[in-house]
Amino acid sequence: MSTVYLGTLAHLKANPFENPDALEIIEYGALWVDEKGAIIDFGKRSDILPKVPEAWIEDFDDAWLIPGLIDGHIHFPQYFATAAHGGQLLDWLVQSILPAETAFADPVYGKDAAKRFVKQLLSCGTTTAMVFGSQFHHANEALFEAAKESGLRLIAGATLMDSPGEGIPDSLLQTPKQTLADAETLIKLCRDEPLLHYAITPRYALSCSEEMMRLCAGLLHDHPETYLQTHINENRNEIEAVLGHFNQCKDYLEAYEHYGLVTDRTVLAHNIHPTDGELTRIAQAGCAVCHCPSSNLYLGSGLFPLSRHVKQGIGIVLGTDIGAGTSFSIWRNLSDAYKIQQLQGQSLDAAHLLYLATLGGAKALRLDHETGNFAMGKSADFFVLDPQEYDYLAERLRHCQNLDRQLFCLLHLASERQIEATFVRGRRVYGHG
Ligand SMILES: [Zn+2]
User: Fold this and answer.
1) How far is the CA of 73 from the centre of ligand 1 (A)?
2) Exposure of 374 by Cβ count < 10 A (0-12 exposed, 13-18 middle, 19+ buried)?
3) CA of 155 to the centre of ligand 1 (A)
């Protein structure tokens, strides 16, 4: 039997950077979903309910129904490493992060962390996550298993490192041979699971040998359904180190282009300090970029040049970048995204922000045929945000002149604490009921 969910619906019909009428908010709305979890229709409840022959009704009253959030960049083995004090990117990595990642060598620890990690994301309204996995295969198997059990849409793969370096524990280094065998196993697993996708994940240009980079290119070529994710242009010292090593390359991007890793299945995290030439080539390749607002502020990495990316038509997804980010919630990252653009003279509105976290992210990850908004036929991936759970927020909304302004307030003032439920493919994956 189908189900009708009642509440205030808010989603993007189109790209608000191109279309000023892209945002749609429907008060007293209804979302009608079939028994397989696909959206049949949506609109005013007075229009939808008469069309429905027989259905379960889930009435969320004044709460907001919003498409599931998309986290385009998060590190699974940094689950317990958030809020580590001190240093910018490279020092922070060696001092706090790499030691934390070694703990995943223990299978029991990895399995327990996988369950917590997935649950944490769903509790934040995240329904799709692109994840840098562990260096340990059993931990990644546990991650895929936890996602499958809980219903999270997952894109993930082992974080690859095989180049020894100062401060890198030996236990985190893999061999290309083992990498290939582990990747093939998980790629095979994803074939039968529509919500699971594999991402080839060289950590960054300096962490991988030439042999490992070529192996990544080979995997991407042999398995065109996979993704490739890595880091780029996050921090000035990092860029200098990469250019010092790849001294034949004119810029950071070329270090990846050299191995054929910049494609329309590639997602590059950060890109805070790109050259114009890099942006042009990223756009030409159809490659996506992931912006991680809270992480960029936390590590003092810099201010993401959003308008330069938008101008080139580059697909942008947002990421929490746990453990450098300080929140598992993409929603909370939206407030930081707004402030980062304010510092550069651009004031994003509610439509732009919600787009980046939902439909824009889905497009960047090539999943917009499945998720991102309430278009008919897509999966019912959404979460329920109830402002009444927070007295001040409920009062503040009563002082807004219209629903657009209410949404803008929600983007800055609401958090995962007001999330009542999360659904993927019409299945309740978080919350009671
Ligand atoms: Zn990262």
Assistant:
1) 6
2) buried
3) 15
